Each structure stands twice: as C-alpha cells, then as structure tokens.
Amino acid sequence: MKTYINPEESSWPKVLERPQFNLQELNRKVGDILNDIQANGMEAIRRYTEQFDGVMVPELLVSSHEIDEAAAQIDIRLKEAIQQAADNIRTFHSIQHPEIRKTETTPGVVCWQKPVAIEKVGLYIPGGSAPLFSTVLMLAIPARIAGCREIVLCTPPDKSGKIHPAILYAAQLVGVTKIFKAGGVQAIGAMAYGIGPVPKVDKIFGPGNQYVMAAKQLVSLSHVAIDMPAGPSEVAVMADESAVPAFIASDLLSQAEHGPDSQVVLVTNSRKLVIEVEQALEEQLSQLSRAAIARRALENSVAIVLDSQADMIRLINEYAPEHLIISMKNYAEVAEKIINAGSVFLGNYTPESAGDYASGTNHTLPTHGWARSFSGVNLDSFMKKITFQEISRDGLLNLGPAIEIMAAAEELDAHKNAVTLRLKSIEDSGKQ
Ligand SMILES: NC(=O)c1ccc[n+]([C@@H]2O[C@H](COP(=O)([O-])OP(=O)(O)OC[C@H]3O[C@@H](n4cnc5c(N)ncnc54)[C@H](O)[C@@H]3O)[C@@H](O)[C@H]2O)c1
Ligand SMILES: N[C@H](CO)Cc1c[nH]c[nH+]1
Ligand SMILES: [Zn+2]
C-alpha cells in the first residue's frame, strides 16, 4: 500500500485512481464474443466455455439429480449458516416493499403507482476464482419477494463440468427456477438473447469480473436491462486513534482477497495507525490461502493521512467506495455526512464480511465510483412501477383547460382535441 500524507486536494483523483482496464480493447473483445454467440448460438457457447473454463459442457441445464447430489454434500453446519443468512436477508428485503399511495392531484384527478415484479430475471453468480454462493442468496431472495416468475441462474462450471455444491444448494433453497452451467460473457449473452435452453430474460443481475461487467453493459444497449456496474470489490476504511489496527487490516484483506484488481483504501488522521495497520497486514497475510491475490490487490491500494476530519469526509465522498467502514469515535456523526457509498459499516464491531454474508443487507453493490449514482441491489431492483390515473367528469372540467392551453402551445392539436371533445360532450350533456 502506498501512503500519502496530507496530499493536495487537486491530487486526490490521481491518488484514488482505481485499477484501469483498456476499455476499448475490452469492449471490442467482449463485443466480438457476443456477436459470435448471437450468430452461432449453442455452438459458440460451448466453444467459449471450453476456451475460458477449460471444459466441454454438453448439457447446460443442471439436472434435479445434480441438485439433490449437491444438497447431500453440504455439511449441516454450513446449511444452518446459510439458513440464518437467508432469514436475515429475507427480513431486511421484505421491509422494502413499497406502499401503493393514491393521491388526488386536482379535485377529481386521482393518480397512483403500482409496483409490479419483473417477470423473468437472470442472475449471474461469479465462479471464476471462488464459488460465491452467498451471491445466490443476495439476488434470488429479493427476486422471490418481489414475485419474479422466472429466476434463471448462470455460473461457470469447474474443470470437471460441475457447479460448486453450495451454489446449487443455495439456489434450490431460495427458489431459483433454472440453473445453467455458463460463465463470463457466454452466460450474459445466453440470458440476454435466449440461447438454447437458456431463456431470454428481462433484466440481468449480479457481479463479475471485467468481462462480465463489460458484457452486461454491452447487452444493456439493446437487449436487456441490467442492475448496475458491479465489478472488482473494494473497501474504504475511515479510522481514527480509536480504531483497532488488526481489525482494519482484516477488513482491508477481506476485500483484497477477492481478486488482484480489487482496491482497498485507508483514510485516517493518525500516522501511527497507518504503521500499525501495515504491520498487522503483514502478520495476517502470511495466514491467508489467497495471500498472493491479496498482495497484488494491495499494490493497487493506498493509505491516506489527512489531519482534518472534514477533509477525510470530502475525500471519501469523492471516492464513492463500494463499502465504507467508519471506525471513528464519532462514527454516527461522520456517517450522517456520507453521500457517496454503496454500503456503510459503523463502529469497531461491524466487519464488512457481515454485509457480505449474513447481516441482511445486500452485497451486490456499485463499484468503481458508480456509488455516486447507483444504489446496490434491493427489492426495488426487481420491480418496475406502473402509474395509473382516473379522472372524473368534474376532474376533467378542473384540469382540462390547462391541458388544452399546454397542448396548443406545443402545437399538438390532436392532444388538445382529446380534451376539447370530452369537455364539449360534458357541456352538451349538461344542456339536455
Ligand atoms: N461488486 C459486487 O457486488 C461483487 C460481489 C461479488 C464479487 N465481486 C467481484 O466479482 C469478480 C468475480 O470474478 P471471477 O473472475 O472470480 O469470476 P467470474 O465468474 O466473474 O468470471 C469468470 C469467467 O470469466 C470468463 N473469462 C475469464 N478469462 C477470460 C478472458 N480472457 N476472456 C473472456 N472471458 C474470460 C470465463 O468465461 C469465466 O467463466 C471479482 O472481481 C469480485 O471482486 C463483486
Ligand atoms: N465482497 C463482495 C462484494 O463486493 C461480496 C462477497 C461474496 N462473498 C464474499 N464477499
Ligand atoms: Zn467480500
């Protein structure tokens, strides 16, 4: 981790720069694969699965036998943990149900908005370097609560053509309707276009590596909606002298171990803390199975010392981290001033892993600064809203003249006429 002491504000964008992809090259490569999939369907999907996942998969659809087999392989303690996490995720997302509220905007003019589930959703579950079965819970539980009719899941097969049993177990537990062995761009193309046994879905959800993220963005230009750009994981920690260096190191490493393109950031007003965190990082790294990945992510990462708390807050809002941990004495006060972050974790006893797995909040969150404008996945993500209105005769008498004047001013006679004809009929019926 590189350390910066009171960097000039003008240099913050450079200091906070995220690992860059060659976007043009990435989009060209991913675009070519998508075109091939559109043109050659299943043959292309099998070919790319062999090329990128190293396995030929004759049948994409996971059978009920494979699902039963997986359930038998899961340890009872893992099943209980998954159940506890699922219950909390269900509780937190259930309270997000929007109310239907009618309002009378003008006497006789009643308007309301009704949330309706998106019918067919596609969930992408990363599987390249770790089987993220927790992401199954994060996506399928709100999809079920929203009432989505078809919940399709794609995830890459391993070298023997199998899917990790915990992914299959979690998927059947929370009501995924079909599971397919497809990863990366192949999976996104299959769900966007509807290829072979994979149905075309209306919206694709889920995180993934740079290829998955680029594919989601490309198919969203013309074929399907997507949740948001959710790419390589990141965390920022704001800490003062009340923080525990070992806890901070563990939180930084928990996101660094996701992938070499992850980024972690420490912002503090204490130089001593930076030194202690660096020592703790070294101690903990030696015990991690994914130490090599985490070390590479730490090369993208920074510790920043800022003497003023107001500057710390401004810098974090500029960075807009996917996850933010606030380990400061006055964390509640600081949290109030955060305007750009995917998910915020308060105090010394709230590790970011809690949100990754089991506290109930969603871990599919905007990365790469997209937290400035996107929310993480929530119940609303699986719904669209239809507006309704009903206007009575009196209502049209009250509102009609304004519509006529506005339509005339926009020189749209037919629009005006749709009101004028009705007003005239009301007038005529009053004369009889
Ligand atoms: N933001 C979030 O909410 C969130 C949540 C969980 C995970 N993540 C991130 O998701 C990512 C998961 O990445 P992953 O790689 O482990 O799994 P992945 O499933 O996203 O990607 C694996 C797939 O990438 C494709 N691929 C690999 N090399 C390729 C190449 N050269 N060209 C084209 N396609 C290629 C393969 O088809 C493979 O199946 C990590 O970066 C992690 O940080 C983010
Ligand atoms: N931290 C990831 C989101 O950025 C989610 C995750 C899944 N499993 C562990 N962590
Ligand atoms: Zn994580």
Automatic annotation (TrEMBL):
GO biological process annotation, one example: L-histidine biosynthetic process
Binding site for NAD(+): Y124, Q186, N209
Active site (record annotation): E322 (proton acceptor), H323 (proton acceptor)
Sequence intervals crossing the membrane: none
Positions bound to substrate: S233, Q255, H258, H323, D356, E410, H415
InterPro entries with a match to the protein in the record: Ald_DH/histidinol_DH, Histidinol_DH_CS, Histidinol_DH_monofunct, Hstdl_DH
CDD domains on file: Histidinol_dh
Enzyme class: oxidoreductase
Annotated keywords: Amino-acid biosynthesis, Histidine biosynthesis, Metal-binding, NAD, Oxidoreductase, Zinc
Gene Ontology terms: cellular component: cytosol
Origin: domain of life: Bacteria
Pathway(s) per entry: Amino-acid biosynthesis; L-histidine biosynthesis; L-histidine from 5-phospho-alpha-D-ribose 1-diphosphate: step 9/9
PROSITE patterns: HISOL_DEHYDROGENASE
Cofactor note: Binds 1 zinc ion per subunit.
UniProt cross-references to Gene3D superfamilies, sorted A to Z: 1.20.5.1300, Nitrogenase molybdenum iron protein domain
GO MF annotations, alphabetized: histidinol dehydrogenase activity; NAD binding; zinc ion binding
EC number(s) from the headed UniProt entry: 1.1.1.23
UniProt keyword annotation of Cell inner membrane present: no
Reaction(s) catalysed (UniProt annotation): L-histidinol + 2 NAD(+) + H2O = L-histidine + 2 NADH + 3 H(+)
Annotated Pfam families: Histidinol_dh
Function of the molecule: Catalyzes the sequential NAD-dependent oxidations of L-histidinol to L-histidinaldehyde and then to L-histidine.
Family affiliation: Belongs to the histidinol dehydrogenase family.
Name under which the protein is recorded: Histidinol dehydrogenase
Phylogenetic classification of the source organism: Bacteria, Pseudomonadati, Bacteroidota, Bacteroidia, Marinilabiliales
